[in-house]
Amino acid sequence: MPNISIILKERRSNALKGSISSMSNLKGNFYTHRPIKDKPTSWSFENGVTKLNGEAILLKDGKIWHPYQTKIKSHEVNMVLFSGLSSKLSRITDNTDLLKAASGFFRIGSGCYGGRINKV
Length: 120
What we know:
Blueprint: E1 4-11, E2 16-22, E3 25-33, E4 42-47, E5 50-60, E6 63-64, E7 79-82, H1 85-89, H2 96-102, E8 105-107, E9 112-113, E10 116-117
Antiparallel strand pairs: 1-2, 2-3, 3-4, 4-5, 5-6, 5-7, 7-8, 9-10
């Protein structure tokens, strides 16, 4: 769904902050969190009092990246699947385009480098 995007614009101490948008309508704040010790890479979403979260699965060309493997470098990751995002968003919206998009893979743009936002 090309009209649905997650734009991460701000680096925070423990996450990248951005938003989910659907045809330029802001839906809420979206955060991605890097893996730490016993917690995997994750995502969270806030919209008023609504707070959702789940695991983010990072991939490079269809192969899963995780911090304990050595074949894929973090900066090579080019896709992400936000596990549970669609089903959790369905609690607060019935926008079918948004729900379809949230259930699929998102491309990671060239402005992101291993969990960091690059200046472009």
